[in-house]
Amino acid sequence: MDSTVLTKQISVLLDQSGIREGALNHESSGMHFLRHNKTTVQDATLYQPLLCLVLQGAKEVGTSTRTLTVADGQSLLVSHTMPVTSKITAATQECPYIALVLPLDLDILRSLVPDVPSISGSTPQDPFSISLCPTELELEGALARYLKQTDTEDTRALLAPITLREIHARLLMGPHGGQLRILLWHESTANRIFNATQRIQANIANTIVIADLAHRAGMSSSTFFQHFKSVTGTTPLQYQKDLRLLRARDMLRSSSEKVSVIAFSVGYDNPAQFSREYARKFGAPPKQDRTPALTA
After folding, report:
1. Is 80 exceeded by the pLDDT of residue 125?
2. Location of each CATH 2.60.120.10 domain in the chain
3. Residue 39 in contact with residue 103, Cβ under 8 Å?
4. In this predicted model, what pLDDT tens digit does every residue of 243-283 receive, in sequence order?
């Protein structure tokens, strides 16, 4: 399977949707497609567990301690919910940045793990929850078939679920597999940190108590802190702060609530402090991020 086949499929869907530049949420497949004709400035966003294939161009993705450059022919796998910054670094009108994003189904992965043979030497040495690898042609082929199968109702109901399982199986058996298998092993450090990030997300407005999170993870506070930073690329407190600000930005763009109300809802006691930290992260005060239609 040549990657140009998948690139053409995505380009056609973007053209049919009238999107010359931007993102398309492809509902029938659950995937997201992106196309940009020029480079972009750095922006903060939240990655859920996902697979991202860059088919043309390049982008940078990073945290406060790590930055990865993803170019065409490479895939990025994110195993934890991660606040990151990203920017497109290679894109032109003649050769736009084109990428495919597939959210990972952790239930499918868990159901497949018992049947995946252990591969000697496949355990990753780097605990960071974002891995970068060359994209295997077999994986691209499975994604192209899955995308085509979501075109019609019959194949979407009968064949697409089978191919989606194949895609997840190929991820477990491929270069990203070591990272995924460690995540899914309930005694692993990666899995314990994953559970800790889930607790932080579920209680975003509450003050973090490191000792409590560490106790739940079966670690000392210092060991937990070190592992958390190794896996997520940031500290627990910064992780929560980034989540709070990203959640607040989503609320500003989708509701007409007062800035102070949004600040309190994500855990800030002081709206002035919220505004300062918001402007520091996003480059503009909260009111400037309000959707115009909601202020009319």
Report:
1. no
2. 3-184
3. no
4. 999 999 999 999 889 999 999 999 999 999 999 999 999 99
In this predicted structure, what is the pLDDT of residue 130? 94
Q: Is the pLDDT of residue 231 over 90?
A: yes
Element holding 103 (H helix, E strand): strand 97-103
Q: Which residue has the tokens 């075109």?
A: 151
Q: What is the DSSP letter of 88?
A: E
pLDDT at position 30 over 50: yes
Residue 122: how many CA atoms within 13 Å on its side-chain side? 17
Polymer length of the chain: 296
Residue 84's SS3 state is: strand
Which residue in this structure is represented by tokens 């003050």?
207
Q: How many other CB atoms sit within 10 Å of the CB of residue 164? A: 20
Domain with CATH 1.10.10.60 in the chain: 207-296
Q: Give the tens place of pLDDT for each residue, 59-88.
A: 999 998 889 999 999 999 999 999 999 999
Q: What is the pTM of this model?
A: 0.90
Closest CA to 21 of 6, 11, 29: 11
DSSP letter (8 states) at residue 94: S
b/e map of 270-279 (b: 16 or more CB within 10 Å)?
ebeebbebbe
Q: Quick check: 3 pLDDT over 80?
A: no
> What's the rounded Cα separation, in Å, for the pair 72 and 134?
9
3-state secondary structure (DSSP) of residue 56? strand
Token pair belonging to 180: 């995924």
Strands (DSSP E) contained in 143-252 are none
Tokens coding 50: 């996902």
If you classify domain 3-184 with CATH, what class do you get? mainly beta
Backbone angles phi, psi at 261, to 5 degrees: -65, -45
Q: Within 13 Å and on the Cβ side, how many CA atoms surround 117?
A: 2
CATH topology assigned to domain 207-296: Arc Repressor Mutant, subunit A (1.10.10)
